[in-house]
Amino acid sequence: MKAVVLLSGGLDSYTAAAMAARDGYELCALTVGYGQVHAREVEAARRVAAALDVMQHVRLQVDLASFGGSALVGDGEIPKDRDLSPSGEIPSTYVPARNTIFLSLALAWAEVVGATAIVIGVNALDYSGYPDCRPEYLEAFERMAALATRAGVHGSRLRILAPLIRMSKAEIIRTGTALHLDYSLTHSCYHPAPDGRPCGRCDSCRLRAKGFSEAGVADPLLAW
Question: 159, 118 in Cβ contact below 8 A?
Fold first, then answer.
């Protein structure tokens, strides 16, 4: 079995990829540079891909910063110390249609390499409120893929695998720890210092800290 994994360089995509490898998938990794202000994560994705020993690692540039619309592409300030309680509010770090674009690119490559699955590390519990991280969205994309591709027309269903979708951040970290993943290779911060140190205050940093704390595991990035 072969799968295309969307690899950002964060701990979620790293863990999801490792779970797919554990389940017997050979991995082709796709990393997208989209004009994100935390572009340091692309280098983290290279490290993670090497650690996973993927078959191939493709890095694409898609300049979503030209559109704007998100703090993650420099349109406004990265929010800090935000209340992360569920509120239904979509934060300014939401990048319009990002996962749809990424999944479409992964779908195109999956057809070329004969992959039967796309792996994505989205999570519907400990997340920042993004609409394209919900199970119903992924189910809809999978249905669309069956209609939009040659493989689908010929009856080969491509699956969207989101193994973390109903896991807490702590459960994700415990799973990765059991798989002996080296989380020092990853990058999570939306607003890192010039030397790469995490800010500790953005949504991603705080969700990561909460997860490591609840998992009872030390975050190796804090040992700098």
Answer: yes
